[in-house]
From TrEMBL, chain A:
Annotated membrane topology: Multi-pass membrane protein
This protein's name: Thiosulfate reductase cytochrome b subunit
Annotated transmembrane regions: 34-56, 68-89, 95-115, 136-159, 179-200
Keywords, alphabetical: Cell membrane, Electron transport, Heme, Iron, Membrane, Metal-binding, Transmembrane, Transmembrane helix, Transport
GO biological process, one term: respiratory electron transport chain
An example Gene Ontology molecular-function term: iron ion binding
Domain Cytochrome b561 bacterial/Ni-hydrogenase: 28-213
UniProtKB/TrEMBL annotation, chain B:
Top-rank taxon, per record: Bacteria
InterPro entries documented for this protein: Multihaem_cyt_sf, Octahem_Cyt_c
Keyword Nuclease: no
Annotated TM spans: 507-527
Native organism: Rhodovulum adriaticum (Rhodopseudomonas adriatica)
Name recorded for this polypeptide: Octaheme c-type cytochrome (Tetrathionate reductase family)
Length: 237, 545
């Protein structure tokens, strides 16, 4: 069994799953965790060096900032090539497909319910660990925001290959502005991303799945039986 | 084959004890690099009474030398700019230092590569013997020219030399027998002292280059590349590469063939190529990306007037002429330069001076064209007049950002015609020279008359800028201008327009939009946190009950 089976209306299934059992199961394989943390570290370095190049701090020289920014960005792009390959060959990409069912409930929770002490309305399942709002956010990030950053970054980096175009200095300014604007958006996303970990049991529990790879999810009796029999290594307890 | 290389060493070990050391080349008497020892030449075995006599002796063998020299700008002091059509050269142009040659000949022509040019109205003396071979070729070190002798050497210990030292009796015989290729002392004797003193004019050419340390000049340091001037300023038929009037501001040709060194131009690229940085590193690739838009000098000469010799940065002629209570010309020496020498900050003859050392250059787009404000051009005296204009822009496709010394001046002009003026400053025996009589009216009238220029009779003083391309005193690579010196919001190139420089505009439209979005997101998080704390009584909104 893969960890990414396409499951329509999965929300309803879980929410109407009176016989489900919550178990801690290995959800994030090693590659996914490596990807996440490499990406996290890369984005931190990119933000730090980007801020340095723009004069927000002078902790490192411009030259070192450019070197790190360029090399880390290229390394991250390579990682993304691998990650994209992995997402599509394993089918995991389906986790990120935006879906409407349950979206309003989650949005309502963050806008209202959380202040009332309500439980999070989304129950993670074996096949869908992302709530509809997360899926929407990540898919937008992967298909719009990140491509804008790395796309503008690559065009920016390769200025000398297109500097003979008419209006090249103006185009460079446009590219640089897009890169800057979207980079700030990514920085905002990082803040939001970290903040959302504080909603739930605790920050540490929020981070733990991405370290250990395990997450408490609702298992149907069939899933549980399958795991107990064939993939016991994925069950923590 | 590869054992062969070791053989001399092995032989040396084996035979070293047995054979006399004198056998070995390094211990033998030095073999002259030249095929001619001039001290053995019969024509030079005599006591010369004058410079021209030496030249005659030189020409008795080097029959074409005088003709070659006479076709050089060193001789003609005239340069027809092919691009602007202007007739320039020392004999014509005005500057913001001592002003002009006309009417000040014997003083200014002390640095002419000849003897006896005492009238700018006339071409240099016609006879071949008037060429001064020794000023460039003496290697005895004791040949010099008298400061006020129209190019002649001092034959008595009286007066000053062109470098401002007390004059001595020059031994022409010793000088004639010593001749060789020009060294830095030869070129420096005039070029380091332009404008009337050490480093006054250029800023990047001073006596510090006689024996510079590596950090002052990597090329000329004796423990560096140990170049002479002519290592770069290659000459062909006594005409040297390199011009300040028609500058080779960009050299996309580079070295030409791979690994080749081009010797017909005195550009950095002719040796270093146009991709001199390591292509295998990110910064090397990025730095090579700069070479089409930024001159090598811009990064590699972080400041000029290094090495302890200051350059004059401002010269205000308008205050000249002050006398003390005894009626003697006033003078002040309130600047001490790096090597300890005190410099005049006021002279009644010349006015007020300011100096600078380790001066950060002025930067401008430069395509090599320089247009001079000649005395027939109308100026706007209400603004700052540019004595020479640097042409170029980011858009012309051939300009690069260059460093300049921007000389600030305040000098006389014709207030009736709005022209810059020639003035007669030197002339100990005249009643017109300003340095003798302190009368601007007479000095300008005499200068204009000597130059054959129209003068209204009214004069005033106008603020001027004059630009001197900086290209010497290349620093070691580790001292090159750091990226952030330019790539920042208030960097060295902040006054330049027409290009986008990464890092210089963090608050551009995109930057501000991005920051607003970021602040909105971060603000939302803060608001959310606050609401959670209020609503849940400090429990932070966790789902624990």
């Amino acid at each position: 069994m893969t960890d990414a089976t396409h499951a329509p209306n999965i929300d309803n299934v879980v929410e109407t799953c009176p016989d489900c059992n919550e178990r801690e199961v290995l959800i994030y394989p090693k590659f996914e965790r490596l990807w996440h943390w490499s990406q996290a570290a890369s984005i931190m370095i990119l933000m730090f060096t980007g801020l340095g190049m723009n004069g927000f701090h002078s902790l490192i020289s411009f030259e070192l900032a450019v070197r790190l920014h360029t090399l880390v960005a290229l390394a991250l792009l390579l990682l993304w090539v691998f990650a994209t390959f992995w997402l599509f060959t394993t089918g995991t990409y389906k986790v990120f497909l935006p879906r409407v069912v349950g979206l309003f409930k989650v949005a309502r929770f963050y806008a209202y319910g959380v202040f009332k002490g309500e439980h999070h309305p989304y129950q993670k399942s074996l096949t869908q660990r992302l709530n509809p709002l997360q899926a929407l956010a990540y898919s937008a990030l992967k298909t719009v925001i990140f491509p804008l950053v790395w796309g503008s970054g690559l065009v920016y980096l390769t200025y000398n290959f297109w500097e003979t175009l008419p209006n090249a200095p103006f185009l460079l300014e446009v590219v640089a502005n897009v890169h800057l604007a979207v980079a700030w958006f990514v920085a905002g996303f990082v803040i939001l991303h970290i903040y959302l970990l504080t909603i739930g049991h605790s920050f540490r529990e929020g981070v733990r799945p991405m370290i250990r790879g395990t997450e408490t999810v609702a298992l149907t009796p069939e899933q549980e039986a399958y795991l107990e029999r064939h993939e016991t290594w994925r069950l923590v307890k | 084959m590869r054992y062969l290389g070791l053989m001399p060493a092995v032989l040396a070990c084996a035979l070293g004890g047995a054979m006399a050391p004198a056998v070995w080349a390094q211990d033998a008497p030095q073999i002259s690099e030249s095929t001619a020892d001039h001290s053995k030449f019969e024509a030079l075995q005599k006591d010369f009474a004058s410079g021209p006599e030496v030249t005659e002796a030189c020409l008795s063998c080097h029959t074409e030398a005088a003709t070659q020299v006479k076709h050089s700008v060193h001789w003609t002091w005239e340069f027809d700019n092919p691009t602007t059509g202007q007739t320039l050269g020392k004999s014509h142009v005005l500057n913001s230092f001592c002003g002009n040659v006309a009417s000040n000949e014997a003083r200014c022509t002390s640095c002419h590569v000849g003897y006896g040019w005492d009238d700018m109205d006339q071409p240099p003396p016609a006879q071949d013997a008037a060429v001064d071979c020794l000023v460039c070729h003496d290697t005895s070190g004791q040949y010099t020219k008298l400061a006020t002798g129209a190019g002649h050497p001092p034959m008595a210990a009286k007066g000053k030399t062109i470098t401002g030292a007390d004059a001595w009796v020059v031994d022409l015989k010793e000088a004639a027998q010593s001749v060789g290729a020009p060294g830095r002392e030869n070129c420096g004797g005039c070029h380091f002292y332009g404008g009337g003193g050490d480093n006054v004019k250029h800023g990047d050419l001073s006596s510090a280059l006689y024996h510079p340390t590596v950090d002052v000049d990597v090329h000329m340091a004796e423990d560096g590349a140990n170049f002479t001037c002519s290592s770069c300023h290659h000459s062909d038929k006594h005409v040297f590469a390199g011009s300040r009037y028609d500058v080779h501001a960009t050299d996309p040709e580079g070295t030409g063939q791979p690994g080749m060194v081009r010797q017909d131009v005195a550009t950095c690229e002719s040796c270093h190529g146009d991709t001199p940085h390591d292509m295998l590193t990110v910064q090397g690739v990025k730095l090579n990306d700069h070479t089409d838009r930024v001159a090598c000098q811009t990064c590699h000469i972080p400041s000029f007037a290094r090495g302890g010799v200051a350059t004059k940065t401002r010269w205000d002629w308008s205050t000249a002429g002050k006398m003390d209570e005894h009626g003697h010309p006033m003078h002040l020496s309130e600047y001490t330069q790096g090597n300890g020498k005190e410099l005049h900050t006021y002279l009644a003859t010349k006015g007020d001076f300011e100096y600078g050392e380790d001066v950060v250059p002025h930067y401008a787009w430069f395509n090599g064209q320089v247009e001079y404000t000649t005395a027939d051009m109308t100026i706007d005296p209400t603004g700052i007049v540019e004595v020479n204009k640097i042409a170029g822009s980011s858009e012309d496709g051939r300009s690069r950002i260059w460093p300049f010394k921007r000389m600030e001046g305040r000098q006389a002009y014709d207030a009736g015609l709005n022209h810059l003026v020639y003035s007669n400053v030197w002339g100990p025996t005249t009643d017109t020279a300003f340095w003798t009589n302190f009368d601007w009216g007479k000095a300008i009238e005499a200068g204009m008359k000597a130059a054959g220029a129209e003068y209204s009779g009214e004069y005033g003083f106008v603020d001027t800028y004059m630009y001197w391309p900086i290209t010497h005193m290349v620093a070691p690579s580790e001292d090159a201008v750091a990226c952030e010196e330019c790539h920042s919001s208030d960097g060295r190139l902040a006054n330049l327009a027409g290009f986008y420089m990464p890092g210089s505009q963090p608050f551009s439209i995109g930057g501000i939009l991005g920051i607003l979005v970021f602040v909105a997101m971060a603000g939302g998080v803060l608001l959310h946190t606050t609401l959670r704390i209020i609503a849940r009584g400090g429990k932070g909104g966790t789902t624990h009950d």
